[in-house]
Every structure is written in structure tokens, then in C-alpha cells.
Amino acid sequence: MKLAATAFAVTGLLAAAPPTATDSPPRAAAAVTGSPSAEAVTGSPSAGVAVKMPAAVADRLGTDRGALLDAVSADVLARSHDARGLAPKAAVGRLAAEGRKVVVDVREVSGDWARGVAYVEASRARHGEPEGWLYIAHREDGRWVPGLEGDREFAEHVARSPLVGTAERRTMTAYAERKATPEAQVGILANTNGLLLPWMPDYYMTVTGGPHSHDGATGYWSALDFAGGNASGLVRSSREGTATSMCGAGGGWTRVIHPGGFSTDYYHMRNTTYYNGTSIGRSALLGTIGTDTCAGGSATGAHVHWSLRTYDANYNGQYTWLNGRTIGGWTWWNGSSQYSGCGTRLGVTACPGTAIYNRTS
């Protein structure tokens, strides 16, 4: 990964810098207990799954927590690209043999509702990123019905759960009004509703990786890597929305859900601000470029791995093509291979190794 700036793309320097957004205060981070689950019985979906759960949440769930963990774990393993089609025990075993964990983080409980984050760690043998989902679960007729991002149940739970705040529900509902097609590379669907690059407008960072897949291997080329520059390494939200720290307090992975059908992921950060479904403004501080691998993968040199996702009417988040889409005033194009693609703006081409300014138009 190239970390030295070899050129400046400074087109459009006369654009006025917008005011700095006020960072929303995060909710308090919870303590972590239980890894792996003590309740899991051999053969249950949560057997061998790492569990994060504040003591107060565990107390509120009581003996019912094992059933919740089983329900969420089963959904996670069914949705994971690397575990799909395998029995839960076999899936967890295969991932464990690669040094990877399945993590269920239960963050909030209220009555018959529970909410949290779940993820499957990426391989630490190469530069790749994890699979992760927000989830909401509802206890119905004595059993837990979980919904992960993309499930019909998740959309229904967002509309009803008291664990979803008014602003967050409004933001999440907005992107469900129409389907965003990931295959659309040009035209009206390439409009990303004014998303910025992940630092302050009118400052620069260096492109260290052009469009590539989120996991560095397969799937749509949805990600970019950035480092250095004069933004003090501070990583900021591409637009307003609701933010969630996917790895919990201190972890380097944050997801922000924006109005209009998109969300963005930020990975490898350090000094992160903890968010838990928190409303934030544009350019809210998320963390600092780093080499954190709280959910697997690897990183060579401090940088931020930024990824673009789209949603459909079922709140199904999927990593999507960057090709032909404009982010931070730059239109991004795939290269002949992953990481080699470039951005263009007003006749200037910025390939890996080029320092670029973040623009609002």
C-alpha cells in the first residue's frame, strides 16, 4: 500500500469550506462479559460463538438469554458468505480453524425487545474486512424472532421496536422507499446524494487503494483506502445519519446509515468515538486512521478502509459498485485489477499515490 503522496489534485480550490459539524455525544459504552457463551449447549447455534453482553442486560434477560443467542447466531450463520450451507457447529468450527470468531453483541433489552450487533470476523491472513449486521429481536409467543439487516423481520422490527429512536427510524425508513440497484454503474442511480470522502471537506488525504471489494477478494468493488494528508488523520462521516460502532467501544469499525438509500463503513480506525444507533451530523468525528483489526483482516500502514453500501425495501444492506459514482466531488472508476482504479474530477485523474481534496460538489 502506497502511503507517500506523489501528486496533488487541487482542482476547485475556490470552493467555500462548510462549517464544522458538531459531533453528537455517544451513548455510554457497555462493559463486555461472556466469551464464548456459557449458556450454549453442544450442538446449539450459539455453541462456540463469542458473546458480548453487559451484566445489566444479562440480568434482564435471565435464563432467556440462551434462547436469544441461539436465535441470533442461527441467523448470522445462515447469512454469512463463509458459513452459508453448513450446520452451525460445522460453520463455527471451520471459522475457528482459520482463527476467526462469530460474535454476537447484545447491547440493549427492553421488555420483549433486544438489540445489538453481530459479525463474522475476516481472515487475518490477508487484507480483508468482516461481515456484520445490526439486528433487532422480538420475543413472540415465548420465542425470539430476530431480524438482521436484510431480513423482512428487521424492517418490521425497525417500525415497531422501542429500541429504535425517532431520528434513526426516520433515517432508516427513508432508504426503504425505493430499491437501489447495485449493478447500476452509471446514470441516475449513480447519484450518491452528496456523500463526502471520509474526512473534512477542503482538506486532503492520499488515495492508497482504488476501488476494490470490501473483503479484498470477491464481490462488488465497493471500497477505497485513504491515508496521510493534512486532515490530521481524522476520519469523519460522509454524511449525516445514524452511527453504530460495530466492534463496540474502542473498536475500529463504524457503520453510518444515511438518508437516501446508502450507508458507509469505516474500518481500521483508532481513537474511535463510540456510537450505538446515534444520530450524527455530516463530518462527525468517527476516529483516526489506524491499523485496527477488531473484527479480523489485516492492515499495512495507518489508513481508513471506506466502503459504500446500498439498501432495498427490506433494509438489505449490500456492498455496491463504486464504478461511475461520485463521492467527495470525484467520480470513481474500476481499474484493470482491484486497488488500481482511479478518481476523476474536472479533467484531473487521481490514482493510488495521489493526494486529493474532499469536495462538496
From TrEMBL:
Q: Where is the composition biased (Low complexity)?
A: 19-31
Tell me the keywords, alphabetical order: Signal
- Signal peptide: which range, if any? 1-21
Q: Does the keyword Nucleotide-binding apply?
A: no
* Region listing for Disordered, in residue ranges: 19-44
Keyword Mitochondrion appears in the UniProt entry: no
* Name of protein: M23 family peptidase
- What is the species listed in this Swiss-Prot or TrEMBL entry? Streptomyces zhihengii
